Amino acid sequence: MPVEAQQTLRLDDIGQIALTVRDLAKSKHFFQDALGMTFLFEAGTMAFFQCGSVRLMISTAESPGPVGGTILYFRTADIHTAHSLLKERGVNFLQEPHLVARMPSHDLWMAFLKDPDDNPFGLMSEVARADAPSN
Fold this sequence. Notes:
3 helices, single chain, alpha+beta, 2,3-Dihydroxybiphenyl 1,2-Dioxygenase, domain 1
């Protein structure tokens, strides 16, 4: 990897914030109808809303436990390069980069890491699709 790439990787653009909820339908109604947030899409046990330049994801917990946990997702143009560089820097990953959703214009990729206090963080990359419809 070129030295320039190592020096220029900065995770300073939050692309998404995730919030764990008990009841997806009830929470979706709250965020969309009570708070007036713009609903984007649903994927499995997740619902997404636009909040300015940041996306809010609400989802039910994958396993029983506390709800209300928050995860910050940092946007990166190339998730595979960012992942490799961060691993070289000693960052511990919980999940390697993987495809989360195929959207009409892009594929959404994510990877998950943790800080020294075991707080989870996400990397997200929206990769343009070659077969995306043109406007």
